[in-house]
Design goal:
14 helices; four-stranded mixed beta sheet; four-stranded antiparallel beta sheet
C-alpha cells in the first residue's frame, strides 16, 4: 500500500484511489492544465495520489480547471473535448464507481454506452436484429448534448438514486468546474454542460437520458424498440406514419429537458429489403450510421442462397479516419527501420481496427487495408534503391512475394488482407495508388 493514514470523514478507502488510478492509467490520456502526465504520477504515487485521497475523504477536494481541446469533425467543424488533470480523473473514477453501484441496475436493457458488461458491439447487434423485424428506423441526433445538460435537472436526477452527501457534493463541483480555453482564458460554468472527455461525464449522460428518454419511451411505447449508446439513439417502428408521430413526440419530450434535436441529421430510414419506393424519395432514406457502422441494404448469404438484407459494415467516415491515421504515420519515411519493426509499430493499431470494425462484415475492411498495403509498397520503393527508378508495380510485386514467404508478419495479412499481384497492363494509379503515392 502507498498510504498508511487512518480513514477519515467520508467512506473512501485508500485502495479505491489506487485501483482508480490503475483504470485511468490503462486509458493513457493526455495531461490536463497542470501538465502532469500519467507516467509522472505512476513514478511518485504517494506524492500525487495521497492528496487526492486525503481531500476526498475530508470533503476539501475541489477539481481544477478542465483543459479544452478542439478536434476536427467530419463536417469540417470542431468538437470541444474537456481533458481533466490526471489526478482529477482519478478522483472522478472513485466517485463514478461508487455512484455506478447505485444507478446501473436501474438503467434500461436498451442502454449500452459505458456500462459494465455491455459494449458497442452489443448495441450494433441488437440494432441489426431490430432492423430485420421493423421496417422503419429513426436516427436521432441530439444537438450539442454534452454542452446542454442542465445542472439543476442533473442534480435532481442524481438525488433520485442516492442521498450520499459526498457523492452529490463532488458531482456538483465537477459540473461547475471552470474550463480553460485553448487561448489560456478560463470560462466559468454557465449552469449547463459537462465536459465530453471527463471520466464521470458518460455516467451522468446515462442518468440524464435515463429520465429524459429511456424511462419515458418504455412507458409510452411498451412494445417499441430502441438502442442507445450515450447520446446515439436509434428507434424502430413498423409503419412510416408511426415513425413520424414518434419523432414528433420525442422532439417534444427532449424540449422538456432543455434539449433539441438536430433536424439536419435526424432522419427516418426505410429498413425493409424491399426496394420499391413506398414513399416520396425526399422523405425516405435507405441508410444510417451508428457507432462507426453504416446500416444499409447489402447482399447477404443465408448458407443456401443469396438475398438482400439490411446489415451493418464499417462506415465511410470510419474508413476515412483510419486512412488518415495511416497517412499520419508516414510509413514511407521509416526507411531507417526494418519491415518487422514497422509490423511491430502497426500491430496494436491494426488489431484494434479489426477487432472493432471487423465484428460485422469483415470483408468491408478490404479497401482500408489495400491502402495500407500500398503505403508499405511505397516504403519498399524508398527503402531499396533498386526500386526507386522503376515503376511502382515492381515494389508492390516484391511486397506480394514477401507476404507469401511471411504471411503472418502483419496482423492484417493474418486475416487475409494481403497485397495481391498486379499486372503492368493495368496502370498502378488505377488501383488506388493515386491517393497514396
Amino acid at each position: 500500500m502507498i498510504f498508511e493514514e487512518e480513514q477519515k470523514r467520508y467512506p473512501i478507502e485508500k485502495s479505491e484511489v489506487w485501483e482508480a488510478f490503475k483504470l485511468v492509467r490503462a486509458k493513457g490520456e493526455s495531461p490536463g492544465v497542470d501538465g502532469i502526465t500519467i507516467d509522472a504520477v505512476d513514478s511518485k504515487p504517494r506524492k500525487y495520489l495521497y492528496p487526492v485521497w486525503n481531500r476526498l475523504t475530508s470533503g476539501s477536494y475541489f477539481p481544477p480547471a478542465v483543459r479544452q481541446k478542439l478536434i476536427p469533425k467530419a463536417n469540417g467543424k470542431m468538437r470541444a473535448l474537456g481533458i481533466p488533470t490526471v489526478t482529477d480523473r482519478v478522483a472522478q473514477m472513485v466517485i463514478k464507481q461508487k455512484l455506478e453501484k447505485h444507478v446501473d441496475g436501474h438503467f434500461s436493457a436498451n442502454s449500452f454506452g459505458y456500462r459494465p458488461g455491455k459494449s458497442a458491439h452489443d448495441a450494433i447487434e441488437q440494432c441489426r436484429v431490430n432492423c430485420q423485424w421493423y421496417d422503419w428506423a429513426i436516427d436521432l441526433d441530439i444537438e450539442g448534448f454534452f454542452d446542454n445538460i442542465d445542472h439543476e435537472l442533473m442534480m435532481q436526477m442524481v438525488r433520485q438514486f442516492t442521498q450520499e452527501k459526498y457523492i452529490l457534493m463532488y458531482v456538483e463541483r465537477w459540473l461547475k468546474a471552470p474550463v480553460q480555453l485553448p487561448d489560456g482564458t478560463l470560462r466559468e460554468s454557465a449552469g449547463k454542460g459537462t465536459p465530453q472527455g471527463g471520466v464521470i461525464s458518460p455516467l451522468l449522460a446515462n442518468i440524464f437520458l435515463h429520465f429524459a428518454f429511456d424511462e419515458w419511451f418504455g412507458t409510452r411505447y411498451p412494445k417499441g424498440a430502441f438502442e442507445r449508446y450515450a447520446d446515439d439513439i436509434i428507434v424502430h417502428c413498423s409503419q412510416y406514419e408511426e415513425a413520424v408521430k414518434t419523432l414528433e413526440a420525442i422532439d417534444l419530450r427532449l424540449k422538456e429537458y432543455k434539449l433539441n434535436l438536430n433536424r439536419a441529421k435526424t432522419k427516418i430510414v426505410y429498413c425493409n429489403s424491399n426496394q420499391k419506393q413506398r414513399y416520396p424519395k425526399d422523405k425516405q432514406s435507405r441508410s444510417f450510421d451508428f457507432l462507426g457502422y453504416t446500416f444499409k441494404p447489402r447482399i447477404v448469404s443465408t448458407g443456401k442462397r443469396l438475398k438482400l438484407g439490411f446489415t451493418p459494415a464499417i462506415s465511410k467516415k470510419s474508413q476515412k479516419r483510419i486512412c488518415e491515421a495511416v497517412f499520419k504515420l508516414r510509413i514511407h519515411r521509416m526507411v531507417h527501420l526494418s519491415i518487422d519493426k514497422i509490423a511491430e509499430i502497426l500491430k496494436s493499431k491494426i488489431r484494434g481496427w479489426i477487432n472493432y470494425y471487423g465484428k460485422f462484415r469483415k470483408s468491408a475492411l478490404r479497401g482500408v487495408f489495400r491502402i495500407l498495403n500500398f503505403r508499405l509498397a511505397f516504403w519498399v520503393r524508398n527503402k531499396y534503391r533498386r526500386f526507386r527508378k522503376k515503376h511502382p508495380y515492381f515494389a508492390y510485386k516484391w511486397l506480394s512475394g514477401f507476404c507469401n514467404d511471411y504471411p503472418n508478419l502483419f496482423v492484417h495479412w493474418e486475416y487475409g488482407f494481403r497485397p495481391l499481384s498486379l499486372s503492368l497492363e493495368e496502370p498502378y494509379e488505377s488501383r488506388g495508388s493515386s491517393t497514396v503515392l
